[in-house]
Amino acid sequence: MGRSSTAGVTPEYWDEACRHLAKRDRVMKKLIPQFGEARLQSRGDAFTTLARSIVGQQISVKAAQSVWDKFLVAVGGPASRIAPASVLALEVSALRAAGLSARKAEYLTDLARHFEDGAVHVKQWQHMDDEAIIDELVAIRGIGRWTAEMFLIFYLMRPNVLPLDDLGLLKGISTSYFSGEPVSRAEARELGEGWAPFRSVATWYLWRSLDPLPVEV
């Protein structure tokens, strides 16, 4: 699948996915109409999206925004698009001055190096399967499977991702399907099989069931 870096890109498959899920799943049939015309929307470019995910790790949304704003000033780029070369041109001290920890500064430099050296095949991603892209991304320091799966859903808008390490997904399943009882990854995986080939869409609606505000990057 292809996509551009313009704002507000929405998956073409969304309406088909909603019809499919409503037919197959009694909870989805009730849940989907509650959010009207709301859709997943993707913004930005690949490098900027991943950089922002690294900046936001293990800190509050408010703190992440503050650090991100300082980081943008340091690299001297527009908020929508940061060049990897701009990050590589900075000394670690400049990254630290933007409020980044030493570890996150290293992660961002490694991310930029992977993009600048062509170690990630951005132009080929549309022809690669999900696991192949995840393998490329987790080779970058600071990016684990969960971050890679979020990237697949929110940036590449892949339709069939089931992020079993996501606490929000497990909580949504627990609340909507198991009356609040704890849910194991195995139970979530089994339930998710019924959502294929649109597991990303089902996941998005379960996130929305916990937080009515649109989830976007």
Automatic annotation (TrEMBL):
* InterPro entries the record matches: Alkylbase_DNA_Glycosylase/TA (IPR051912), DNA_glycosylase (IPR011257), HhH-GPD_domain (IPR003265)
Reactions catalysed according to its record: Hydrolysis of alkylated DNA, releasing 3-methyladenine, 3-methylguanine, 7-methylguanine and 7-methyladenine
Entries under Gene3D superfamilies matching the protein = 1.10.1670.40, Hypothetical protein, domain 2 (1.10.340.30)
Highest taxon listed in the record's lineage: Bacteria
- Tell me the Pfam families matching this sequence: HhH-GPD
Which SUPFAM superfamilies does this UniProt record tie to the protein? DNA-glycosylase
Enzyme Commission no: 3.2.2.21
Q: Which keywords does this Swiss-Prot/TrEMBL entry list?
A: DNA damage, DNA repair
What SMART domains does the annotation carry? ENDO3c
Ranges for domain HhH-GPD come to 55-211
Keyword Thylakoid in annotation: no
Q: Is Endoplasmic reticulum among this UniProt entry's keywords? A: no
- Indicate what this protein is called per its UniProt record: DNA-3-methyladenine glycosylase II
